[in-house]
Amino acid sequence: MDAVNHQFRLAARPVGLPKPSDWEYAQEPVREPDAGEVVVKIEYISLDPAMRGWMNDSRSYIPPVGIGEVMRAFAAGEVVASNDPDVAPGEHVTGLLGVQEYAVVSGKGVFKADTGLAPLPVHLGTLGMPGVTAYFGLLDIGRPQPGETVLVSGAAGAVGGLVGQIAKLKDARVVGIAGGAQKCGHLLEQLGFDAVIDYKAQDLDGALSEQCPDGIDVYFDNVGGEILDAALAHLARHARVVICGAISQYNSGAVRGPSNYLSLLVNHASMTGFVMSDYLDRYLEAVREMAGWLAAGELVSREDIAHGLESFPEVLLRLFSGENTGKLVLEL
Amino acid sequence: MDAVNHQFRLAARPVGLPKPSDWEYAQEPVREPDAGEVVVKIEYISLDPAMRGWMNDSRSYIPPVGIGEVMRAFAAGEVVASNDPDVAPGEHVTGLLGVQEYAVVSGKGVFKADTGLAPLPVHLGTLGMPGVTAYFGLLDIGRPQPGETVLVSGAAGAVGGLVGQIAKLKDARVVGIAGGAQKCGHLLEQLGFDAVIDYKAQDLDGALSEQCPDGIDVYFDNVGGEILDAALAHLARHARVVICGAISQYNSGAVRGPSNYLSLLVNHASMTGFVMSDYLDRYLEAVREMAGWLAAGELVSREDIAHGLESFPEVLLRLFSGENTGKLVLEL
Question: Nearest-5° angle of CA A249, CA A252, CA A253?
Fold first, then answer.
């Protein structure tokens, strides 16, 4: 094919926050698709906290990105060439397409994105990995009951904002933790949260006592660290703690374990972890219900769109500095 | 009544290991039972790790022992006077009778102990609180399936030894962690464990790789600290971690949180806590089945019996130095 593919490859394993020298900005020609393959011209790249974990050389749910390999990322784009009879040029798809302009991948490895249903970036957020993560983490593990108190951290992030909204659809009382007045206002005014805690401005323990006076029934944790510990100290009996992520810990050398974990013991509570890929076989079940809520106006989808492939290294860091509100996406 | 009751009262809240000055050795006359009360002459006092928690002034599943109050403890003895028509003098009972020679308590607060079924100390162990703890923690929370690998720490303790034996009765493969060759030999030879790890002599991580090559399906944790962290690093997918206690942490100033807790995330695993009193309404269900196993010779009950009320402060410390094998009981 007569096109050049610019891409970010992992040059070194980061210590702490990824720095410019951890990346190699490379280019190569776009090759022809083999039998069963498609060529996708990428339009949007999803930036997700999980990407930081994929850069570490440690045993996890998928192998790490190898040094010299194109950085792994969910992305969305248009099929521009196809050697798979089930996928036609002109169709929009999402998948693990990498941080690059073109991806040549198996047609079986992509999901078709109905852009009549929602704009393409929404298929990387509410109707993509973060949406499916929020849906199953909350409903399958957290199992909120009407009237229960659901606390979610990273509440202004892609997953957290959806968790809170789904919990509201299930008639729970929803308290969100986020950093800064702007994010907290967004949660209350746009997303319909019942209460918010600004962890940058408020004393966590006091705020939790005030906002969760009967204790926390479901805590959906995206951040780990001191916020997890504070939440553990306020669990209700039979509470369910959902471990979805620990963004405060991904760039620290040593993970801080939750020293209040014995709160699980005195409250007969549980702490359960998961990753979205645990639910791959039920992916469409979540997407269908989320799409229905979106169409009915019962769910607000918020994307935070940055621009330009070359800005990838710095835009990625916004996840860890807490700058983004909603799904962070890079538009090419 | 014409008897003197010697007792240990809590004189001060311990910092770290309880020291002699944290206790007051007191005496008082034994009072007559009011309506509904019984007088129990205590024969055996149960020494349990949970007692350390009861000495702290912190929010927990039961209020702390007050300064100046008789130390709380399970105990067993003979009813010597009764003002409760349902309990007759001469009957043996167990209950929260305290660290003393005589207890005057409500007849509704004691369980009758059938000494024809098993000697009285067994009613404080296998047929008492540790037995019920092991039974529900393993079967209700751990839920081992045939062929699964069950790891238990504090395996030579009262609860741990029963957990391993019950797991064997459920056709699991059982690995015990204990300190020292003598305890490890006891687990293999008397209790029928499949494998043991001597945490004082072996590298935990290497030993877990060797003894749990397919990962740990159920980890029953009595100890916390570095053993919990090591076990978390070896979880199988969908593992269940049962938090029963954390004896390594009870006398440390700050609890060490499990820094490997994100292993729950990558393995879709859970960590659930409980205390025996969560199952009080099903107490007899456990005791009946355990008694059946005992009578059939399918369960070995091991008691470690010390002597003399006055030795209580020093005998209690054996729990924390890891000196006892089986249920630690003080015979008066």
Answer: 125
